[in-house]
Design a protein that fits this description.
Layout (H helix, E strand, L loop, with lengths): L8 E8 L10 E13 L8 E8 L1 E6 L2 E6 L3 E5 L4 E5 L5 E8 L4
Antiparallel strand pairs: 1-2, 2-8, 3-6, 3-8, 4-5, 4-7
Amino acid sequence: EADDFLRKGNGIRMERVIPYTRGHLLQSNIHVVAPGGASFGLISHQGEEVGYLIAGEIELFVGDKSYRLSEGDTFCFRSEIGHGYRNLGATEARILFVNTPPAF
């Protein structure tokens, strides 16, 4: 099952925007991150990603840089660069990720 490969970390759950099926060129998920939650390390994979912070406040790590993002902020990067995030706020963060090709 593809869900076994979803992003791992403390206080993270995923909501699929595009159901997992073979043949899609895009993959889209909403990463729901509890206060203090964070991804488990940096990951990298083939492709490109774009994201939109629906709610909350996060720190996004891309390579050796970090970015403090607030509700309404967007981002885009090559997926081959190691990336991860953590919730900096006191409320749940919701991050819409879209990437191509599908990574998991």
